[in-house]
Design goal:
alpha+beta; 12 helices
Length: about 260
């Protein structure tokens, strides 16, 4: 199967918690030799520091532990939320359980969000954060909670999420008002936006680091990849109307399917 084809399941579109094991340091190592990713991160953090990085009091020990791991991995040596956010290529979110055991968002650096705002979700439980995604909590709230509770240090668990975007911008913060895909369009004007995700346990604090890397593939390259095109077509044709609307694909789904 092609690398892009791996993004799509063999059946109808559904929420699933398919995870792959890996090494934590590998995800956070720099991969962009041009330095443009870090330059853009620094730019957003300088322009609007409170929008793109934040930390609660409960998140302070999580940040300290993650900063220590980044230094151990030779990724970065900053200890502040803004400094670390500017020094590592992936976005990162810091989670820990509250007194009831529910995991809450305690902080992070999110320079390249896909349509959501860190400042609005800070301190909320995952159930609340995921509540805007149609069907996600009913399908995966319990498995996610069980997985995070049992997550052991020293290993990374990877998964991927995807959508379609009408821009090759990395930063799709809702305040920027980047338009949704709309007609007229073409495969050269849409991008498959892939969010590569990783979960890593923090052994001392009991927290979890959720890392995110964005990869953009112009849609004409997907159309030309037989396996990926078939997988995307299957996902789009089997997706519920509610999920289509959530992903902002209602205006273009039919025409995209016709290309695949």
């Amino acid at each position: 199967m092609s690398a892009l084809g791996d993004l799509f399941s063999d059946g109808d579109y559904r929420h699933h918690l398919t995870l792959r094991r890996g090494e934590p340091r590998d995800f956070f190592q720099s991969r962009d030799p041009s330095g443009r990713v870090l330059e853009e991160r620094m730019r957003w953090l300088a322009l609007e520091p409170e929008r793109y990085a934040a930390l609660t009091a409960e998140g302070e020990p999580l940040l300290a532990e993650f900063a220590g791991l980044c230094a151990e991995w030779s990724v970065a040596r900053s200890t502040s939320i803004h400094g670390l956010g500017a020094a590592v290529e992936p976005d990162f979110l810091l989670l820990s359980p509250d007194a009831s055991g529910a995991f809450r968002l305690r902080g992070g650096a999110l320079c390249f969000p896909t349509g959501w705002a860190l400042e609005e979700k800070l301190g909320q439980t995952l159930d609340v954060i995921h509540g805007v995604v149609p069907g996600l909590n009913s399908a995966l709230a319990s498995p996610i909670q069980q997985f995070l509770t049992r997550l052991k240090p020293g290993v990374a668990f990877h998964r991927d999420n995807w959508g379609l975007a009408a821009s090759d911008e990395l930063n799709l913060h809702p305040a920027r008002g980047v338009p949704a895909p709309d007609l007229p369009t073409s495969p050269e004007r849409l991008w498959l936006r892939v969010e590569h995700q990783v979960l890593v346990a923090l052994p001392e604090s009991g927290g979890v680091v959720f890392g995110l890397r964005i990869a953009l593939h112009r849609l004409d390259t997907v159309v030309g990849d037989g396996v990926a095109a078939a997988g995307l077509r299957r996902a789009l044709t089997s997706m519920s109307p509610e999920m289509v609307a959530y992903k902002r694909l209602d205006r273009v789904r039919q025409v995209v399917v016709s290309w695949l």
